[in-house]
Give the backbone structure.
Amino acid sequence: MTVLIRLATDLLNLLFPRLCNACGQSLVRGEKNICLRCLHDLPYTDYHLYADNRAAKQLWGRLSCHAVMSMLYFKKGSRVQHLMHRLKYNGQMKLGLELGQLVGERLKQSPGFSDIDVVIPVPLHKRRERLRGYNQSKCIADGIAECLDVHVLSNVLIKPFATGSQTRKGRFSRYENLKSAFQITDGFSIKNKHVLLVDDVMTTGATLEACGLALYTAGIDKLSIATVAFTD
Ligand SMILES: [Zn+2]
């Protein structure tokens, strides 16, 4: 029977080849969303091994963080950009889970992230989440939480107001706009906890800063941050 299932799977793969979400080559049996070659060759930052890494420095003086890491360098036109695009716009929820697991494995090697109590994804505005069908940061958070054996709380930090297009606003008004965009629904569930805030890509850090400040108003003990990719 297993031989038959294997044959059927091989035939399906032949008719509808599954492709690597980073390089676009056909995936072979055993590969999930990213081919083994990409998994090996992706531009890993190793930021989880250095407390004063560039992602952490991006938030210095703006948001008090216990530990900060981003797993991959993000460059325009790169395989990492392709990955993040597939995660956001192609309904690749399983890819988010796999990327989250890769981040989680690294967090387990880093003392800064050893006592995380709960994982919270950066929320999307409800309308955008409905349109997309899912929140990509929640998928990443699920993968991380599975590795760390902790819970994800995805309804504690919410984004009740749409912030509109960020690209046409100046840096200051963008920040003002973001500052009030996030709210806490159930502060008690995170009070005195070490919270890990998770997002897909860290750029200026403005979104993470706004989310972090909202979390501190709920009386959390420590805030740490993990994202899949980093761009500056
Ligand atoms: Zn690949």
